[in-house]
Every structure is written in C-alpha cells, then in structure tokens.
Write a structure and sequence with these properties.
Layout lengths: L16 E4 L3 E5 L9 E5 L11 H22 L3 E6 L14 E6 L16 H4 L19
Antiparallel strand pairs: 1-2, 2-3, 3-5, 4-5
C-alpha cells in the first residue's frame, strides 16, 4: 500500500512565512503570477474551503486583509484578485485549502476587464453581450 503524499503546506518552512495568526499562515506563492502573489492557508489541514469553521474563515479573511495592506505599502499595485481553487476541476493542485492574493498592476495584461472570467476564455468578453435573462431586441415590433 502506498503511503499518502505529505502535504507541502503542512510542512512549510518558517522562512517562507510572511505573516501568520493563531489559525492561519501567509506565504509567497512558489510559482507567482505577479509580484507579491501570496497564499493564505488555515493551519488545520483541510482540502475544502467549505469545511473550514467560521472562526477559521474569519481568521483567514483578517490575515488576507493585513497582507493586502502590507503589499499595498510595499508594491503599490492598482488592484488585487482574491480567489480559491476548490477541487481538482477548479485547478486545486495542493489539497490543502488556500486563498490566493494576487496584486495587479496597470499593464500586466492588455485588457484586465473580466478578471477571473478569463478562466473560461470563450466567456470572458461579456461587456458587449446581454444577460441570458434579457429579452431579445424586438426592434420595431408593435403590440
């Protein structure tokens, strides 16, 4: 029988930690998509964000806010993306809950509109479309 793979995040080197609280840890992403890309994880190992306790979720949100302020002071980004990859189909590669805090900078992509919608490129450009529940244009139709 194979031994379970040890969790990378549960054995995180203290040198990688940029901030922490009683229930959460923040550290720089090993494969950052931007300067300052930081992960916030609960200390308790759980694969799903939805299995966290209310106290753990609140603690993670408080820590992510604190890290955001530090990154704002250090890097002066013009925006942030915050996200959770929940499950393999959503891109989760380490089965330990993590929140991504990604600083964004003017010009880091040609057109940032749509943000996380670019996970599905064919659905990313929405600003020139009508919502599904919008009635079709009836033009000159009269009752």
């Amino acid at each position: 029988m194979d031994k379970p793979t040890p969790c990378t995040y549960c054995s995180l080197a203290q040198a990688r930690v940029v901030d922490e609280s009683s229930l959460s840890i923040a550290f720089k992403d090993a494969f950052p998509v931007s300067d300052g890309h930081t992960l916030i994880i609960p200390r308790r190992h759980t694969a799903s964000f939805f299995d966290l306790t209310l106290q753990e979720r609140e603690d993670m949100m408080n820590l992510i806010a604190r890290v955001k302020h530090k990154l704002q002071d250090e890097l002066n980004p013009q925006g942030f993306n915050v996200g959770v990859n929940e499950g393999f189909a959503a891109g989760q590669t380490v089965m330990h809950t993590s929140m991504h805090l990604i600083p964004r900078f003017k010009g880091d992509v040609p057109d940032p509109r749509g943000g996380v919608r670019w996970l599905f490129p064919d659905k990313a450009v929405f600003w020139d479309k009508k919502p599904d529940d919008t009635p079709p244009d009836l033009g000159d139709a009269k009752p």
